[in-house]
Amino acid sequence: MTFPGFTNHDIEVADGVRLAAAVGGTGSPIVLLHGFPQTRLMWRHVAAELVAEHTVICPDLRGYGASDKPRTGYAKRTMAADIVELAKQLGHPRFALAGHDRGALVAFRAGLDHPAAVTHLACLDVLPTLDMWDALRGTAGAVGFHLYLMAQPAGLPEAMIAASADAFFGHFLDAWTLRPEALPAEVRAEYLAASRAAVPSIVADYRASATVDVEHDRADLAAGRTLAMPVTVLQQDWGAQLGYDAAALWRAWAPDLHHRTVSCGHFVAEEEPAMVAAELRSLLRRDADQREVSAAG
């Protein structure tokens, strides 16, 4: 499946690693990063809403979809550098960035590592890595069983998932949505096929979040680093079940934060695309609105 009116690009962002991306529109650039178990296709509705006003760039992350799947290189720091290089090669050294799920963790790291490149940041239905691990306690944390499975040393997780890939990935597509019609059969089939073909790299991405990504986030936390750009977070109210205040956790990382609790399921960009597009437009206006307030004062 393709994005009508977009062109497909295949760009080398690191030695031997190429990312596939759909690019459309003109105007200020925004990069949209997909989550698990998905591809850039998850942004099809939001991209269609934004393309009249912006250059919209929708890549498949390293290890997913039509992008290359090297055996190593799944630290979010590396994956974030991929995205910065991709945007640069497309002529955009500065850009807004939105990510969902795994893509939100890449976007978060890009905002911390590349504040001169990322002008605005949106993260959909995720917590920062350190806060995610802290939140998963007791039996309520069983909802995150896949995080613990894919954190195990290489070999067993890959074999278990590959043995029943469609059932594994399909579980999340079914369990995480409150509006099944948002994932029609042909879209679901594409996600399953893409995930089935990427089991080792998907597991490597998750394993990094239990190892090197934790180290990088701890170092930033100890150094007092925060996100310097305007940040919008849209997420379900998992805090009520797991016992945390999501807005407070995010505010520790993002001083300029707009946090909104959504009423749909995990696949926000497909279940509520008009709302997501409106929130992204609002985010992109925030620096201009702040300058107007400062000038008026």
Automatic annotation (TrEMBL):
Any one GO MF annotation of this record: hydrolase activity
Keywords: Hydrolase
Pfam short name (any one): Abhydrolase_1
Keyword Hydrolase on entry: yes
UniProt superkingdom: Bacteria
The keyword Hydrolase is assigned to this record: yes
Chain ranges of the AB hydrolase-1 domain: 29-273
Record's protein name: Alpha/beta fold hydrolase
Organism whose genome encodes this protein: Nocardia jiangsuensis
Lineage summary: Bacteria, Bacillati, Actinomycetota, Actinomycetes, Mycobacteriales
